[in-house]
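Its record is set out here:
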Amino acid sequence: MKEIVNFFYELGNLKRVKRSGWWRLGIKDSENIAEHSHRAAIIAYVLAKLEKANAEKAAVICLFHDIAEVRIGDIDKVNARYIDTKHVEKKALKEQVSKLPENIGKEIVSFFDDIDNKKTKEGIIAHDAEQLECAIQAKEYLEVGYKGTEKWIENVKNKRLITKTARNLLDTMEKTSSMEWWQHLSKIPDDTKYRKK
């Protein structure tokens, strides 16, 4: 039980490890890995429902995919030119789960393989969800004034999405303001029907 609890404590550090690619654009308080993984998992769940796949598995793949970054940090595309990220990340992950019950550790490693090898429908969906989350975050940063984030959106659009549903969601995201969801909520409700006559 102690090793499981220590694993939980270790994962808490995902809230402290910032996503490094955003630093290159001067974003000082960028999202952390836990924030990225949380929204990616929700995106994966919805995307899998739309694609008629196992939504729970797709979401869980996203939740576990980046946990090794507690040990190796978030390696962005510039760093990845010089580091064999798949090998390093998988090595860290295997060590990370080695003290968990064997069936749990093996399953967590299989989630990593699902998304990186894109051999299962859920792995493909989890991959697309991670990419969509990155594009959505880029759009949010762009709309508050960070220039250069549009390149992240272009990269996702041009090279990375596999499912048709993910491509459709990206197209819709590009045409939708990140602030639209709350605009109607900020209006003062008409309370005239409650006033005494």
